[in-house]
Design brief:
InterPro entries: CstA, CstA_N. The chain has 538 residues and is mainly alpha-helical. It has one domain: Amino acid/polyamine transporter I, CATH 1.20.1740.10. 76% of the residues lie in helices and 1% in strands. The chain is built from 21 helices and two strands. A two-stranded antiparallel sheet has the order 1-2. β1 and β2 form a beta hairpin. It starts with a helix and ends in a 10-residue tail after the last helix.
């Protein structure tokens, strides 16, 4: 099969889903463009900062995309490209898109509070503690695994390290020009993108060569600084500018694919069981997270995006639209390796140090068809991927700080409300993972925890919608499916790690399993309690 055919079919399906199912969700959630959003109402210049539609899309898309739609699909194609594509399309439309959009709207209707706060209002303080505990554990895994991936990418492609450092300076200057000097956004964007391209050229000329542990320590310091700075100074402008890199990568890859017209040589289906990955169910559904559904997205929607949304009407474009765009990115990722034979795919994955290098090599090969050297194209793809890995890293650290502050409020010494203390507290566990583990060991546990977080966020939305008297079937169905998938996956991980004598990962999976079971019980009690079955304003 020619990959162009598959890419076009997927693109059309996603576009139709945005218009048809996105409109259905907007109607069910009773979106009101005249309702004042928390970003506009509070507007404190630090956390609550109204952002223009394209700026917020850049921030949100860059944050949720990260390395997830690259790492997951490449790891999952060992089962064949067809199961991966089906899960990406169906999952993004009916599970991930619903999860992201409803999480955002739930937060907006509750003063841009986190999903944990929404749970507290409808399920009580015990439910909030359980959810936040699960969130912090998941965020530690996210920060740890992405720190490893970024460090490995910088070692494999040192040009990316130089350019990424320069990107940070460009973002800070951009944020100052737009937010303090009120420079026209279009003019600032043109200057910012030009500065980023110059940074790429400088990176190619002056690569920085450091070891992975050294990079991990540097990234640890960066994540700390990014977490405590005002959102307008670094996080928002860097994500916005980085989004142009990803838009460029997607467009460049699509043009290259149209010219190259690659035939898919990887098999469509290899079987229900893989010798190293295990069984297709539930492993496929936790391996491909970003691109189909990712619980991390609910933390982004309710953690940073809800504090920047200037109009409820833009929520569908920002949350549902970004999820479908990420799904298309995941399809492109499959195309970056599907033209290889199984033997070549395995050899490239091993030789290039993992999914990021493998993805960059494939995209670079396609982009070389429209005139640039393959080496330059591969470097650009690696730079783009590393930029988005950093985006996930710093955003997850900030969200982890929010969660630590929320769970310790009125329950621990006041020092934990301090941004510096809360950030440091969350980074300790992530640093231990990054300095002692490998992404292959952590990814299955991260995937399970991440998907379970998605199921729990959907549970919170169901409880909220039920209490408002709204219909819930379109959230209940994906919620039940994700609970089945992730409980099964955690069970498999506990068994596998126990048999392999990896007791740390066994215990981690066991703790996550217990937390999610108790939270599911709390949610069921909340929905079944006649005393709390009163209708509240949506």
């Amino acid at each position: 099969m020619n990959f162009i055919t598959l890419m076009m079919i997927c693109g059309v399906i996603l576009l139709l889903a945005y218009r048809i199912y996105g409109r259905f969700l907007e109607k069910e959630l009773k979106v009101d463009p005249n309702r004042t959003t928390p970003a506009v109402e509070v507007n404190d210049g630090v956390e609550y900062v109204p952002a223009k539609k394209p700026v917020l899309l850049g921030h949100h898309f860059a944050t949720i995309a990260g390395g997830g739609p690259i790492t997951g699909p490449i790891a999952a194609v060992v089962f064949g490209w067809l199961p991966a594509v089906i899960w990406i399309i169906v999952g993004s439309i009916f599970v991930g898109g619903v999860h992201d959009y409803t999480s955002l709207q739930a937060s907006i209707r509750h003063k841009a509070q986190s999903i944990g706060s929404v749970i507290k209002e409808y399920m009580g303080g015990r439910g909030q503690i359980l959810f936040l505990s699960f969130s912090i554990a998941t965020l530690i895994l996210i920060v740890g695994v992405f720190m490893i991936l970024v460090a490995n990418t910088f070692v494999a492609v040192p040009e990316a390290a130089t350019a990424s450092i320069l990107f940070l300076g460009v973002a800070i200057i951009f944020g100052f020009l737009v937010n303090q000097l009120r420079m026209n956004l279009v003019v600032a964007s043109i200057l910012g993108v030009a500065a980023m391209l110059i940074s790429i050229w400088v990176g190619i000329q002056f690569p920085i060569h450091l070891s992975a542990p050294t990079w991990s320590l540097i990234l640890l310091g960066y994540a700390y600084v990014a977490s405590v700075l005002p959102v307008w100074l670094l996080l928002q402008p860097r994500d916005y500018l980085n989004a142009f890199l990803l838009y460029g990568l997607i467009i460049g890859a699509v043009i290259g694919i149209l010219i190259a017209s690659p035939t898919m040589q990887l098999p469509a289906y290899t079987g229900f069981r893989h010798e190293t990955m295990g069984f297709l169910f539930p492993i496929l559904f936790i391996t491909i997270a970003c691109g189909a559904i990712s619980g991390f997205h609910s933390l982004v929607s309710s953690g940073t995006t809800a504090k920047q949304l200037d109009n409820e009407k833009n929520g569908k474009f920002i949350a549902y639209g970004a999820m479908l765009l990420e799904a298309f990115m995941a399809i492109i990722t499959i195309g970056s390796v599907a033209y290889l034979t199984q033997a070549d795919f395995a050899a490239r994955l091993d030789a290039l140090g993992g999914p990021i290098g493998t993805f960059a090599a494939g995209i670079g090969y396609f982009m070389s068809y429209w005139g640039i050297s393959e080496a330059t194209a591969v470097t650009f793809a690696a730079l783009t991927a590393s930029a988005f890995l950093l985006t996930t890293l710093d955003s997850a650290t900030r969200l982890m700080r929010y969660a630590v502050q929320e769970i310790t409020e009125n329950r621990a010494p006041k020092m934990f409300q301090n941004s510096h203390v809360a950030t440091t507290t969350g980074l300790i566990g992530a640093a231990a993972l990054a300095l002692t583990g490998t992404w292959e060991q952590i990814w299955p546990l991260f995937g399970s925890a991440n998907q379970m977080l998605g199921a729990l966020a959907l549970l919170a939305v169901v409880v909220w919608l039920k209490k408002t008297g709204a219909r819930t079937f379109y959230v209940v169905i994906p919620m039940v499916f994700m609970f089945i998938v992730t409980i099964s996956a955690l069970g498999v991980l506990m068994y596998n790690n126990f048999m392999a004598s990896n007791y740390f990962l066994f215990f981690s999976a066991f703790v996550l399993f217990i937390l999610c079971v108790f939270l599911a019980i709390e949610g069921w009690r909340s929905m079944s309690d006649d005393k709390s079955d009163r209708t509240v304003k949506m």
